[in-house]
């Protein structure tokens, strides 16, 4: 890490703490704020925020690893969330998930080598009547079949 990186991280850590607060009970919102800014929790920001609020880094990592909402690696350009809630499960979510996983060559939480896609499964996305449902970035796709899903992936890969 260069000194410029150090000072950038320190500056950002101060901004994060100023926005959220420095009380020990603010650890989760602080981690959420870091992830909101970068899409994941970078080691340097966790360390600088811990320093800023005078808590051991291990405390922040302890909380971050407990909750599945937190990521420790950068996400791809497009984040694919496959719903595996009950309605989607019954409607064939696993087949849709498999086609994505096979097409892209990634498994849960991984990002494609070209940095284009990250694959995640989630619980109910709140539109069960459209099951099975997949969310890519902010777009919802419903009543999916493996073939339909493959077509949608291709559109994104082609630069949608
Ligand atoms: S179970 Fe998938 S949207 Fe509700």
Nutshell version of this structure?
The protein has 160 residues and is of the alpha+beta class. 49% of the residues lie in helices and 11% in strands.
Q: What is the CA-CA span between the terminal residues? A: 35 Å
Instruction: Report the CATH superfamily of the largest domain.
Output: Glutaredoxin
Record field, number of beta strands: 4
Helix content: 40-55%
Give a quick account of the main beta sheet: strands, pairing sense, barrel closure. Answer: 4 strands, mixed
Rg over CA atoms, rounded to whole Å, is 18 Å
In CATH's first tier, which class of the largest domain applies?
Answer: Alpha Beta
User: What is the strand content?
Assistant: 5-15%
The small molecules bound here are:
FE2/S2 (inorganic) cluster
**What is the strand arrangement across the widest sheet?**
2-1-3-4
How many structurally independent domains?
2
Regions with little confidence, pLDDT below 50 for 5+ residues: none
Shape, please?
elongated
Structural class: alpha+beta
CATH architecture of the largest domain: 3-Layer(aba) Sandwich
What is the fold named in CATH at topology level of the largest domain? Glutaredoxin
What would you say this structure looks like, in words?
With 160 residues, the protein is α+β, with helices and mostly antiparallel strands. It has two domains: 64 residues; 80 residues, Glutaredoxin (3-Layer(aba) Sandwich), CATH 3.40.30. 49% of the residues lie in helices and 11% in strands. A four-stranded mixed β-sheet has the order 2-1-3-4, with helices on one face. Helix 1 packs across helix 3. The protein is elongated and about 50 Å long. The structure holds FE2/S2 (inorganic) cluster (FES). The site of FE2/S2 (inorganic) cluster has 12 residues, from helix 5.
């Amino acid at each position: 890490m260069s000194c410029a990186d150090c000072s950038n991280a320190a500056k950002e850590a101060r901004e994060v703490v100023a926005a959220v607060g420095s009380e020990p009970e603010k650890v989760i919102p602080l981690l959420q704020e870091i992830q909101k800014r970068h899409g994941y929790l970078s080691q340097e920001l966790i360390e600088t925020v811990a320093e800023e609020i005078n808590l051991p880094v291990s405390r922040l990592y302890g909380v971050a690893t407990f909750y599945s909402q937190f990521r420790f690696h950068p996400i791809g350009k497009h984040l694919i969330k496959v719903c595996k809630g009950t309605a989607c499960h019954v409607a064939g979510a696993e087949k849709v998930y498999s086609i994505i996983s096979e097409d892209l060559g990634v498994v849960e939480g991984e990002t494609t080598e070209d940095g284009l896609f990250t694959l995640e499964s989630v619980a109910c996305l709140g539109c069960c009547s459209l099951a099975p449902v997949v969310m890519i970035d902010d777009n919802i796709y419903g009543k999916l079949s493996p073939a339909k899903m493959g077509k949608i992936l291709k559109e994104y890969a082609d630069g949608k």
